[in-house]
Amino acid sequence: MTAANRRGFLLRSAGVTLAATAVSRAALAGLPELASHDSADTAPPLAPASGPHYNPVVTLNGWTLPWRMNGGVKEFHLVAEPVVREMAPGFTAHLWGYNGQSPGPTIEVVEGDKVRLFVTNRLPERTGMHWHGQRLPNGMDGVTGLTQAAIEPGKTFVYEFVARRPGTFMYHPHADEMVQMAMGMMGFWVTHPRLHDSSPHPAIAQVDRDYVFLLNSYDVTPGASVPKTSTMTDFNLWSWNSRIFPGIAPLVARQHERVRIRVGNLSMTNHPIHLHGHEMQVTGTDGGPTPPASRWPEVTVDIAVGQMRQMEFVADAEGDWSLHCHKAHHTMNAMGHDLPNMIGVDQRDVVDRIRALVPGYMAMGGNGMGDMSGMAMMPRPPNTAPMMGGDGPFGSLEMGGMFSVVKVRRDQPAGDYRDPGWFQHPPGTSAYEWTGEPPPAASHAAHNPVNDVEVHAKKPDMGGMPMEH
């Protein structure tokens, strides 16, 4: 089945299922109001309208799910459904997600909250919902076939439990995982600590900005829009919250603010997340906050599959600081992996022959792949992101995939998450081209240094033992 036919099959199947088994208005009357969001912009934090105060998180290129209070219970409504996600300007993917987006909206509660979650299935197949990392009754764990029956298309299930411990968690299906998670079904959950008498939590510090995002990966053939769900290792799109650079929003901070970044990994490999210009500490995992005495400074934090790492730093250095996965091919888009290394190969003769058959043919890779960043406007299959690019103040960034910028400004207003633009470097603080005399050519010795080495060998003393010949 071609990518186009498969896309049509998925969307047609979803439509048929909805028409045949959609939940009736009467059945939905008792559910919390359905909130949906399809913008790829970073939504402002959702401050609590009632209950204990907390500092809400900011979901990178995402949003937080509203709730209602019902008899002392905090109620949420998640809808699993096909979605269209803009992964970068000019490139969209047909995914599965929740409430209009992939990943789904972030859920925020407070330690000790009683929660009730309605999960409605608008997919063409059955699903379930696992609350990754939560302490809860076994029957609420959400493993289809083990702890509950599947949520059939058109049906709604209810999950009820107490948010027992503070921390950062995730949610995702435990039903047909290879397909459903590869199609983008996942989301973040944050349980804030319940503070008593304004006393600080012994292991969870107050921060000024609190960002969250998920690491995920896709294999989308250039020109197509539906991921290949059978891919296990050879992905060509590495994303944060189903966005790829240059579509990933910056993380903005005021100078000297304390910043927390919560990162969950639901991709198929580990990711070493590296921050420029600052030192971080891992202050929490999906198992809870780390003891303060166990922390140490890092500039790169490796996050394994199924893990969450909560990192904190003081944004004391002004500037535009890179934040990215340090696996080099994870900061590129739509990249073919079966290409030979052509660096140093003289391709002029073969290029002339090919141009006789294919006018306009261009040889690539003879001097590295950096030139690709300048070819963003060259013809490529429709609905395909450039392999690398992103315009910066000094030209192309030559990046893609898992890359963003932490923008620290002394005059950024508190609570303002708007992009301040590019940093204006003070005079004399930016690298510059040398325009003086070129350095002298390096001299090389005419002789082979190996010939100058004299080697002395001595047989070991075997203690009088006879040696075989």
Automatic annotation (TrEMBL):
It is found in: Periplasm. Keywords: Copper, Metal-binding, Oxidoreductase, Signal. Its main location: periplasm. The keyword Signal applies. Residues 1-29 form the signal peptide. PROSITE patterns: MULTICOPPER_OXIDASE2, TAT. The keyword Transcription does not apply. It comes from the Bacteria. Residues 416-450 are annotated as: Disordered. Residues 91-194, 225-339 form the Plastocyanin-like domain. It holds the Pfam family Cu-oxidase_3. One of its GO terms (cellular component) is periplasmic space. One of its GO terms (molecular function) is copper ion binding. PANTHER family: FI03373P-RELATED, MULTI-COPPER OXIDASE. This is Multicopper oxidase domain-containing protein. It comes from Scleromatobacter humisilvae.
